[in-house]
DNA sequence: AACCGGGCCAACCGCACCATC
DNA sequence: GGATGGTGCGGTTGGCCCGGT
């Protein structure tokens, strides 16, 4: 027996929302809140709409602090770097971009950003050299372009940890660690005793005058070459629904399995929205980014064998025979994102002095 | 001016998860 | 422990807009 429909589809209006409906919904929610029950809301509000439709309209359009319009370069960077790490988990990505909705980001990615990136990909990306452990030993553009995830973090996602400037500060505090090794395939070089603490520094976004409230992260190269991402005690407040979200990026990044090492990360994420909390089912999810030779797989799972395990899992190392074009695209984009040539894509001249400084440091 | 095709975006749909009974 | 209902997520669709012919 199938599920009962969430509403009487015959008696609900579909299609674009009229200004009157918007006003009704907005007024009702501002007065009474959602009441924790979207299904019942349209009836109470006098709307002939499905509760889900109301929720979507509110979250994606009507709620306060929604940002519409052009995405900034910083937002591009965040989207790309997160996409490279976690794939199409739009809600999670949206949580890092205040005022942006998952739908917005999804559309933006599918219609613009992906194409922007794909436009940079050579004809046959599979013929490109793999991510190289000889990072920084060659200066050819191509080899630089396909260096490693370390570059991704250099250029693309310093917000994961700190501002570019605070990266410097953080790393300077621990001179025994070469920052690029934290994400280099050659994890053997990670100093297991080194700890990088950036808790007191502003996030990358904050450093760039964005509204980002991303919690500074801590990297803990733990024992056995584990890298541990630890959030600070401070909750970040960056949910796309304008609420406060708290992200504690997981417990560990563990090197295992892969010849070059892999990055294994679990994270917890919870949102607190207008008086009610919902713990996302992503809790305890783990993702794995292998970057020893190439990005070889991205695996989702919460250890319970649910659907997250079915996220695209791709092997580009030549031992996959069932990779679809779509998956190729995904990996192509990921690979590209992982390249140092992101700076080309992201308009190098727009880089802040600090980030250039950071790159210089990283590439030291 | 009419037609066509592509891009973009709001909205819908189906599914999975979680809480409650 | 199973059934049910509510919620959230990601993929897909449909329609509008705009530029090109």
Automatic annotation (TrEMBL):
Residues in Myb-like domain copies: 9-62, 63-113
Subcellular compartments: Nucleus
GO cellular component, one term: nucleus
Gene Ontology molecular function terms on file: DNA binding
InterPro entries cross-referenced by the UniProt entry: Homeodomain-like_sf, Myb_dom, SANT/Myb
Domain (HTH myb-type): residue spans on this chain: 9-62, 63-117
Main location (coarse class): nucleus
UniProt keyword terms in alphabetical order: DNA-binding, Nucleus, Repeat, Transcription, Transcription regulation
Top-rank taxon: Eukaryota
Official protein name in the record: Transcription factor RAX1-like
Biological source species: Coffea arabica
